[in-house]
Specification:
The chain is mainly beta and 126 residues long. Helices cover 0% and strands 39% of the residues.
């Protein structure tokens, strides 16, 4: 069996908004990371809350085999992202990225992710 090139496993997240008038989801944005390489699996874990998105990339090997990474994004005009936040834009921009604090090989940092409405993030590493 012929497998596709490994680069397709770099990963991405696809953002859609639901249109209540038409009952359809409308594509907004594809999010990839600038440093994403083969088999990083960006987006294997995702969390969105209000204006915040966090993407896990547990197989990122920037600091050693499968040390992992997490990427943080914010939508709109750069305010605090609270529930009453006004959206100037539907698109998200990357704010930061973090790795496992001790760069532990095979820690798979980013295996699970969660973000709250204030932008506080939890990143799992099994």
């Amino acid at each position: 069996m012929l497998l596709p090139p490994a680069a397709i496993y770099a990963g991405a997240a696809y953002i859609y908004n639901f249109n209540y008038h038409t009952g359809n989801f409308n594509f907004v944005q594809k999010i990839t990371t600038p440093a994403s390489t083969t088999e990083d699996a960006v987006g294997i874990s995702t969390s969105i809350r209000g204006e915040w998105i966090v993407l896990g990339s547990p197989f990122n090997s920037q600091f050693g085999n499968s040390t992992g990474h997490a990427y943080f994004y914010k939508r709109g005009d750069g305010d605090d992202g609270g529930e009453d936040s006004k959206q100037d834009s539907d698109t998200f921009s990357q704010l930061a990225s973090i790795s496992h604090p001790s760069y532990t090989v095979n820690s798979n940092f980013g295996w699970s992710v969660s973000v709250n409405r204030f932008g506080t993030v939890a990143v799992g590493a099994p």
